């Protein structure tokens, strides 16, 4: 049985109890982060915590732990579950209150976290790529905050799975924004494109890919591309904390490039792997 963290305690998963009046349950009133752990070390933990704090400031939600306490939660979960390769899920809500739309003036946040085994992308995915579909981006105006209110992401992801696809590329007003749980990139004539940080999630892996592009001198541009232009690209790939970088070789039944992972993706994937080893010693 896995051990989880809840409000200052490490306890068995089946003993973790959260009030049915917790605002995360009633309203999706909470924030979350997923942190990847390699070789027992957090990858970009400071970036994840900074993003959660930014979201807390935007939503007037207290993040009730500092850097050291965050580290203690993660290390405790790894120790209690005997994990070195893991994904750690951390959620903060506004706590339990009688159901009322207005924020309570006083509250005690609920802090919940768990750790699960995680693995690197398979060789099959890296060598053969995955399929995706397009889906209308029907989310609201706070996509840049990582809230627990993910119903519309779940809807698109479920439709992708039923179509036999790995992901759904979200399309807003004719432009590809991101994917349901990942950032989206395409490559045209050797240049990497990704949507600017305009009402999309500021992905941590996205940030690292752009930093690596600067480091290695790759051409890139943060620019919104129409969906037709995006799908005409030579390469498409998506990035995320757990999945790292994944090549997309088919969208809506349409082959991308030559239908194989391309050379720019391979450079990105290799550079990201090297960076993970540099930071975490994998």
C-alpha Rg, in Å? 19 Å
Overall shape: globular
Structural class: alpha+beta
Assign the CATH class of the largest domain: Alpha Beta
CATH architecture of the largest domain: Alpha-Beta Barrel
Structurally, the number of domains stands at 2
Give the end-to-end Cα distance, rounded to a whole number of Å.
Answer: 27 Å
Helix content: 25-40%
Give unreliable regions as ranges. none
CATH topology of the largest domain: D-amino Acid Aminotransferase, Chain A, domain 2
Strand content: 25-35%
Mean pLDDT: 97
- What oligomeric state do the depicted chains represent? single chain
Helical segment count: 8
The number of strands is 15
Could you state the CATH homologous superfamily of the largest domain? D-amino Acid Aminotransferase, subunit A, domain 2
In sequence order, what are the helices and strands, one letter per element?
A: EEHEEHHEEHEHEEEEHEHEEEH
- Main beta-sheet strand count, sense and barrel state: 9 strands, mixed
Describe the structure using short key phrases.
single chain, 282 residues, alpha+beta, D-amino Acid Aminotransferase, Chain A, domain 1, D-amino Acid Aminotransferase, Chain A, domain 2, 2 domains, nine-stranded mixed β-sheet, six-stranded antiparallel β-sheet, 15 strands, 32% helix
